[in-house]
Design a protein that fits this description.
The chain is of the alpha/beta class and 297 residues long. It has eleven helices and nine strands. Strands 4-5-3-6-9 form a five-stranded parallel beta sheet, with helices on both faces. The radius of gyration is 23 Å and the shape is globular. The two termini are 18 Å apart. It binds BIS(adenosine)-5'-pentaphosphate. BIS(adenosine)-5'-pentaphosphate (AP5) binds next to helix 2, helix 3, helix 4, helix 8 and strand 8.
Length: 297
């Protein structure tokens, strides 16, 4: 090295916008920004100059500076995915397929609550009153429950797939405060007339946890058919109440994730819906990996 000016290069994680490319054009000066240690995630890197060199005179300088690149040795961070949609839009069905392929930790607020109800805990008893009415269970029950599951080691290491959460601005605000920001927010779009039929025909296998529909996704064998159960809130009357709750909260929640929302047509057959989600997640992973690769090069 001819010159010994020493600069450190730090890596920050601007939030991923699925509608914009992740990397800067090659001929563009990389932005100089403040290093944020709490965001050592991905994908663009920025320069943090230890010398008294402003962005302006850095550009004007005729002397090519030499950079000391501090290699992080980090591997691409796992995916952090939120999936949302009206009741019976297919969130759980897609989560089964996504976790199978991407090995993410599936965290479903509804499942966590049903587990509390089944265990007969105080929280479960209280939650059931709201679930029966198709209303949101109060934050003091849900927020810490989800936060704790997100904080567990497997969620941190494998990445997470958050299903049916957040459903209100207060839940989204709490998640942001705890530092849980998604790479992507998938919204399944299905019109209401289809949703009621899906709810009424839904059945669950208590042994495998698999979701069926008597018409669209019938059980494979007589043995499975005989043991299927129905959720206590899967009636036409209750799903209409759940839809009202969903409709009154959805826009406010979407507005908090508008940079990372991807809308997917949930009326297609389930494998086609998955194929679209699969493409989106594969591309996102590739971008994460190539951004990291270009740093290492
Ligand atoms: P939750 O359990 O989350 O229920 P939900 O949001 O109403 O969603 P569902 O589980 O009913 O539907 P889904 O989108 O997963 O559809 P699925 O894949 O099963 O919440 C229940 C309650 O808990 C709430 O009402 C609330 O009280 C409480 N709660 C939950 N989260 C909360 C929170 N964050 N804060 C406060 N309270 C909360 O599919 C449905 C059916 O359609 C199945 O039979 C399936 O086989 C079929 N199907 C799926 N995809 C397709 C397809 N592409 N084509 C044809 N059929 C399909």
């Amino acid at each position: 090295m001819a010159s010994c000016s020493c600069y450190s290069v730090n890596f920050t994680a601007p939030s991923f916008n699925p509608n914009k490319p992740l990397t800067s054009p090659p001929n563009q000066l990389l932005p100089i920004s403040r290093f944020s240690s709490s965001q050592s995630k991905l994908p663009l890197f920025s320069l943090h100059l230890n010398q008294n060199l402003s962005p302006t005179n850095f550009r004007k300088s005729r002397v090519a500076p030499t950079f000391l690149v501090v290699a992080s040795g980090e591997k691409a961070e796992p995916l952090r995915v939120m999936i949302s949609g009206a009741p019976a839009s297919g969130k759980g069905t897609q989560c089964e397929l996504i976790t199978k392929k991407y090995n993410l930790v599936h965290i479903a607020a509804g499942d966590l609550l049903r587990a509390e109800v089944a265990a007969g805990t105080e929280n479960g008893k209280r939650a059931k009153e709201f679930m029966e009415r198709g209303q949101l269970v109060p934050d003091e029950i849900v927020v810490m429950m989800v936060k704790e599951r997100l904080s567990e080691q497997d969620s941190q290491e494998k990445g997470w797939l958050l299903d049916g959460y957040p459903r209100s601005v207060s839940q989204a605000t709490a998640l942001k405060k705890f530092g849980f920001d998604p790479d992507i927010f998938i919204l399944l779009e299905v019109p209401e007339e289809i949703l009621v039929e899906r709810v009424v025909g839904r059945r669950l296998d208590p042994v495998t946890g698999k979701i069926y529909h008597l018409k669209y996704s019938p059980p494979e064998t007589e043995e499975i058919a005989a043991r299927l159960t129905q959720r206590f809130d899967d009636t036409e009357e209750k799903v209409k109440l759940r839809l009202l709750t969903h409709n009154s909260n959805v826009e406010a929640v979407l507005s908090m994730y508008e940079d990372v929302i991807v809308k997917v047509d949930g009326t297609l057959p389930k494998q086609e819906v998955f194929s679209k989600i699969d493409n989106i997640l594969t591309e996102l992973l590739e971008r994460k990996e190539s951004a990291l690769g270009s740093l290492a090069a």
